[in-house]
Amino acid sequence: MDQHESSQNSTTNIVRRDNSNHSSPVPTSSSPPLSSTNIRVNSILRVTTMFENTRTGKVVAYDPSSNLVTLHVKGSKPGLTSVAVINLNHCREYVVEQEPKDETLDPLYPVDINKLKKRQTENEIEKKKEATFVNIKASRIGQALFRDIKKTMNQVIRWSNNDILINNTVRISEPYRSENVSIDSTPQSSNSAAAKNSAKADNDTKTHIIKMVEKFWSDSSKIASITNNSSRTKSETTTDTADSISSN
After folding, report:
1. Whether residue 175 has a cis bond before it, omega within 30° of 0
2. pTM beyond 0.70, yes or no
3. How many other C-beta atoms can be found within 10 angstroms of the C-beta atom of residue 227?
């Protein structure tokens, strides 16, 4: 019994999965494979997945053993292309829309090394910044509150020991309640107008942070989840320690 229905004319080759005995649209271990013996480099291929998604592009590589095909497809912007690696075992059909004139690979696209280095530097800076947001010595409540505030104030928030510091002036101390929000004392400016404006800005920030802290604590389900996770971790640690002592 043929597993595939194939039709061919002078310009188009169609290979379609025969799913007559398979009601599920998702390929399974029992689904017949989609053979791909006529795929050649530089041919134009249109692939339809089992979920009716269609991709069309030029074949740049094909591996018969894994049934993986690599296509150059149009990018989201004019003049750009994307590379798609598609598993034909998860496809309903493919159509060879245009046979290649030859199978000589086109030269690789030029790589902007400076752009890559810039992106690498930016990623390193971002990862280092993210690392400063972690404080394993702080309580779970403190860490959760920090993450909440960081969502909207990630440029001005940091840890100061186990205190949360915003704008280098507004401090949240343990146990991280609204009454634990305070303003750090700063050197007085000789300019009274500037000092007044600075004090007002600090007070406005403090008021905003107090509201965020109160909102955080008002979410009882979140607090319960954090507390339960903390208790579970302590319990597991105690059990492990006890087991270790017993084994000794």
Report:
1. yes
2. no
3. 12
CA distance from start to end of the chain: 67
What SS3 state is found at 73? strand
Tokens found for residue 47: 């692939």
Low-confidence ranges of the chain (pLDDT < 70): 1-37, 107-109, 187-191, 229-248
Tell me what pLDDT residue 146 has: 94
> Looking at the chain, how many residues does it have?
248
Q: Which strand (E) or helix (H) includes residue 64?
A: none
Structure tokens given for 130: 């993210």
Task: Residue 3: name the closest of 44, 31, 43 by CA.
Answer: 31
170 close to 209: Cβ distance less than 8 angstroms:
yes
Q: How far apart are CA 34 and CA 36, in angstroms?
A: 6
- Which DSSP state fits 194? H
Distance, CA of 13 to CA of 243 (rounded, Å): 67
| Structural tokens at position 231 | 């208790």
3-state helix, strand, coil in the chain (%, to 5): 40, 25, 35
